[in-house]
Amino acid sequence: MYGADVAQLRALAHQFDQHAQELDAHRMTIGNGIRISAWIGPVAVRFRRQWDSDYSRRVHVAAATLRTAAQSLRRNADEQDRASAADGGGTGRATPSEGGRAAGSAPDSTADIYRNIHSMRAGDDGVRVQVIRGSDGVDRVVVYINGTGSASHGLFTVGSNAQLMLGEGNKTLDYVRGIVAKAAADHPGAEIMLAGYSQGGIVAQRLAQEHQFPISTVVTFGSPRLPSSGLGGIDVVRLEHNGDPIPGTDLEGVLAGEVDAANAANAHAHGGSDVVFRGGNPFQGSAALSGGIADGASRGARGAADAGVAAFAGIPVPGVREAVQLGAATIAGAGGGIMGAVQGAGAGFLAGNAHVHQPDYVWLADQFDKSGRVADTSGREALRRFEGQVVDDQL
């Protein structure tokens, strides 16, 4: 993993410790609440046993996991400080701006490609086309394709992701295909690069697999991987941040290392390349995980407290038996809610990151450009063919 921002690491460690304390406090609150003397009977006995033997222990484990992660983060920050001191540099890394590029700016680096994707406005319908004249006098075309939620008119929707991953057609794919077809017709024989973020990267891979257009290069940021077996001799560069869960949502992500090697070998056999570059802080999105757990526990604790007040502290109910049943059901529901929050923390983490999954891809792209790996050098050469002067920019 490349250098991380030590201040962010320590701040996240502090958040993890705080959420761990909240979990322990909520566990004690509910544990005391279910032992109220008015709650009797087999349901009460059974739930208390479940709480003591299972539910309470799971919440305790979740809190302990957060504390362990906090310790790991602090160790990582300390190691970064020591490494920086040994190199004579500052602590951590600088975080480049991810601000948009002005219209008419050709990409001079891999980070610029990402910036050009995110310079599109909400009304641009998620696609931008640039015609770039290289130093060799040759015109080449770059089509930038944005991610989920970047467009209107039913394009780039959440539901489109699954259709694209399963190889199905949809409105978004047809729309982008039409734009690429027009660019190819307007510039006969021009080499085309497709650059996509998230869902845009899936669209880019799908169009490259069709071999309808002179697509020579595909670069993706934070996108699930489609099999490269159908890409032939196309050069593919895939940037995947360790703190972004989305690239791992494909079937290939399960055996990432083996698939990376197979894709690279297949691409090489057809005269192309398939480069995967990963880096960054894997805990960058983890605040959503700890926050989700703590929020769920807090909701459960409040629900248990409210249930106790409602059932046993003077609010009219039909009778004592009904009151006990009401208390048992609501407190059991609150306990179940907490366990649902703990058990569903992973899903909540993914959902939260799916919504905002934009870790520092500008920084990651800069690291790719500086990498000395032979494969990365080959990938950069494929992208640099598209440097030059913009002669047409269609936002």
Please write out the topology:
Elements: H1 6-33, H2 42-87, H3 110-118, E1 127-133, E2 139-145, H4 158-165, H5 171-186, E3 191-197, H6 199-210, E4 215-221, E5 235-241, H7 256-269, E6 273-279, H8 287-312, H9 320-343, H10 345-356, H11 361-370, H12 374-384, E7 389-394
Parallel strand pairs: 2-3, 3-4, 4-5, 5-6
Antiparallel strand pairs: 1-2, 1-7
Helix pairs in contact: 1-2, 1-8, 2-9, 3-11, 4-6, 8-9, 8-10, 9-10
What does this structure look like?
The chain has 395 residues and is of the alpha/beta class. It has two domains: 6-93 and 285-354; 110-282 and 362-394, Rossmann fold. 55% of the residues lie in helices and 12% in strands. It has helices spanning 6-33, 42-87, 110-118, 158-165, 171-186, 199-210, 256-269, 287-312, 320-343, 345-356, 361-370, 374-384, and strands at residues 127-133, 139-145, 191-197, 215-221, 235-241, 273-279, 389-394. Strands 6-5-4-3-2-1-7 form a seven-stranded mixed sheet, sandwiched between helices. Helix 1 runs parallel beside helix 8, helix 3 runs antiparallel to helix 11 (361-370) and helix 8 (287-312) crosses helix 10 (345-356). The radius of gyration is 26 Å and the shape is elongated. The two termini are 36 Å apart. Residues 89-102 and 307-356 have low confidence and may be disordered.
